[in-house]
Design goal:
With about 600 residues, the chain is of the alpha+beta class. The protein is built from 31 helices and eleven strands.
């Protein structure tokens, strides 16, 4: 590398990116292009926020110096930052192949695989990494721990975080990771003993206390969690602490305290906190209040991409497609590689009939996130609205929506006795007074923690009994390599999530899909008599209707009438929701997601 390029690189490493760019402009005007200069330009462009330009320069450097593992590593990192996780994984695979003894490339590969939703591949790669070249690196164990948690392998995650700490990883981050993993395994009773063994300074670290507060919430103690989150909020007035406290107050049934917290933040006028407050209101369907809160901000804040994106989301919820489109475009223009911003824009485009633009955007992001069920859901909606016959291939209700009776398992001779035992356990697990944020249920509550690690014999028997219906479903839908659902059918599977929902009178699930799933479900533990025996659709699960108002009507097309002990299986990309149950009734379910292995 020439002396001039070394000087430019020194400015880059000192984070003086503007000066580095100025010197690079002068250098490139007087010198022929080399792999070094092209790659350095790519690094500078990325730090200046020009992701597309950075990727172009990095590709150019690799054309000039094919197979350079350092260039591949930086290129892969830039691809991941741009949301192109599948391409990032390919680049890191190539770098790792060139330098198998350098674990940093395999660490990147694990991160990219997790980001793309291929948790099985991420877990296998992480296991190989920590069993080989990364065995002595704390960073490798941390990457592995995060991959294990994403794959639902919380015991392995806890052990990996502990190993990372032994190897010199950041103590607070590693301990917080262990706490999160133990809480997800229903082992919160071990946390006090674990914390008692730690130094006082580490026990009091914000990361550790935040993890302990989350664990308290997950263990079904929202009231205790409120106090912990309040302490954190008083120590560190961050947007994360604010949101955690707001959710804890809402789920604990402390509506007045929730409103007071929102009002206190609104009065300060800080755009970042007002945005979170508005989102909290949006989560509980107070859309008019959310809009009013945002519209109180100064004009400069209202023009920011983040606020524009949030306004678009709220406007979509109240059916204002044209208004939402204006704000969604502002947000996407600022963050064109962000999947969430793209999703926001696609919804507005489908609401306003801008199908050609929606098609281009959906195709682009489907290629980046091939396993993401959300992009398949939007693709299907577009095909339905435009009369494309491929819609019926995705939404083939006769083939892909199937119902089965739950069999017995272990100590339960039949499905009826197992369901009765499961009902008693689940009723004890429902301790929240309000539903957590980012959930589809309305006028109902959800168990705060997944049931996959629940120690109850009835829950364990239920999870085992599900193996039969799921296996039958996979056999019946078959394997077609050209179909987005069945091409992943290996016959092997695992549950990636399981929870319980209790709806009260008038309760329902709004239309939604499961973005990280493959096969999703509804299992009915207890169902109102009027739903089982009636000839109307109250309480029935419905399919096909999007969560937003489309330019042309797209009502539900298929219903399944529930009854206790019924397992309904369907593709995770399929829009589904619940017709409201009658007043004075309750409905108890234990749905789950399945992913292939």
């Amino acid at each position: 590398m020439s002396v001039t390029l070394q000087t430019i690189f020194a400015a880059y490493t000192a984070r003086n990116y503007a000066a580095a760019q100025s010197m690079m402009n002068n250098y490139r005007a007087a010198n022929p292009e080399t792999a070094h200069s092209a790659h350095l330009q790519g690094l500078i462009s990325r730090r200046l926020g020009d992701i597309d330009g950075a990727l172009g320069w990095m590709r150019h450097s690799l054309r000039l110096d094919p197979g350079n593992h350092e260039y591949l590593n930086n290129y892969a990192g830039c691809l991941l930052a741009a949301g192109r996780s599948a391409e990032a994984a390919d680049a890191w695979k190539e770098a790792a192949k060139a330098r198998p003894a350098e674990p940093v490339y395999t660490e990147g590969l694990v991160r990219a695989l997790s980001a793309s939703g291929d948790h099985n591949a991420a877990e296998r790669t992480a296991k190989a990494l920590t069993g080989g070249a990364g065995a002595s690196r704390s960073s490798s164990w941390i990457v592995a721990a995060r991959a294990y948690n994403a794959a639902g392998m919380h015991a392995q995650a806890a052990s990996a975080f502990e190993r990372a700490a032994d190897l010199g990883g950041d103590p607070a981050s590693c301990l917080a990771g262990r706490i999160d993993a133990l809480a997800l395994m229903d082992r919160a009773d071990e946390l006090d003993t674990l914390l008692d063994r730690q130094p006082v300074s580490l026990r009091g670290h914000v990361l550790v206390q935040s993890a302990y507060a989350r664990a308290t919430f997950l263990s079904g103690k929202p009231g205790d969690a409120v106090q912990l989150f309040q302490d954190l909020w008083s120590r560190q007035a961050s947007t994360t602490a604010f949101r955690d406290l707001a959710q804890a107050l809402w789920t604990a049934g402390q509506a007045q305290a929730f409103d007071a917290l929102i009002d206190s933040v609104a009065g300060q006028g800080n755009p970042a906190f007002v945005a979170v407050a508005a989102d909290c209101l949006y989560q509980i369907d107070r859309h008019a209040d959310a809009l009013a809160l945002l519209e109180q901000l100064p004009q400069a804040a209202l023009e920011s991409p983040q606020i524009a994106g949030l306004r678009a989301i709220v406007l979509q919820a109240i059916g204002e497609g044209e208004k939402s489109l204006e704000f969604a475009r502002i947000d996407f223009a600022a963050r064109p590689h962000d999947s969430g911003c793209a999703t926001n824009l696609v919804i507005s485009l489908l609401m306003t009939g801008s199908y050609e633009e929606a098609d281009k955007l959906i195709s682009k992001f489907r290629s980046r996130y091939p396993l993401d069920q959300g992009w398949l859901a939007y693709q299907a909606t577009l095909w339905r609205l435009t009369g494309d016959p491929r819609y019926r291939e995705l939404y083939d209700y006769d083939r892909f929506v199937k119902a089965y009776r739950l069999p017995g398992s272990d100590d339960y001779p039949d499905g009826e006795s197992l369901n009765s035992a499961l009902k008693k356990v689940l009723e004890e697990r429902h301790v929240l007074a309000g539903s957590p944020f980012n959930q589809s249920l309305r006028n109902g509550i959800q168990t705060p923690r997944s049931l996959l690690c629940d120690p109850s014999p009835a829950v364990r028997a239920y999870l085992k009994a599900l193996q039969g219906p799921i296996s039958r479903y996979l056999e019946e839908i078959g394997r077609d390599s050209d179909h987005e659902l069945t091409c992943r059918n290996t016959g092997n599977f695992r549950l990636s999530g399981c929870w319980s929902v209790r709806l009260s009178g008038g309760g329902r699930h709004v239309n939604h899909f499961h973005p990280a799933g493959w096969i999703s479900s509804a299992y009915y533990v207890d169902v109102p008599h009027e739903t089982v025996r009636g000839d109307r659709t109250e309480g029935c699960i419905k399919f096909g209707e999007p969560s937003f108002k489309t330019a042309q009507p797209a009502p539900a097309e298929h219903w399944v009438r529930p009854s206790p002990g019924l397992v309904v299986l369907f593709p995770s990309y399929m829009w589904h929701g619940t017709e409201p149950i009658l007043e004075g009734e309750h409905r108890l379910t234990a749905p789950f997601d399945v992913v292939p292995e």
